Request: fold
Amino acid sequence: MKIAPLTPAQVGSFAKTVVSGDVALPIAEKRLAVCHACEYHVVERSFTFCTECGCPRRKRARLEYKVRKKGATCPKGKWDE
Ligand code: SF4
Reply:
C-alpha cells in the first residue's frame, strides 16, 4: 500500500511533537489505556492508531509512541494530561 506524502502542516506538527520531550511513564500508560478503550482507535499490524487525529498511519503515528510525547494531544480531549 502506498502512503501519501505528509502535508506541510503535518510535517510541522510531527516535528513539534517529536522534539517536545517525554511525559512520565504512568501518564503515557494512562493515555494508552484511554485510547485502547476509545471508539476511535484501530489496531493494524499489532500497533494502535487514532482515526481522528488526521495523521497517516506511519511508525511515529502509532499511539504507543504518541502517548509518550508531551506535545501530543487527543483530538477528542479524552486525555487528562
Ligand atoms: S487519541 Fe483520543 S480520540 Fe484518538 S484513540 Fe486516543 S483517546 Fe481516542
Observations:
- The first strand starts at residue 41 and ends at 44.
- The mean pLDDT is 90.
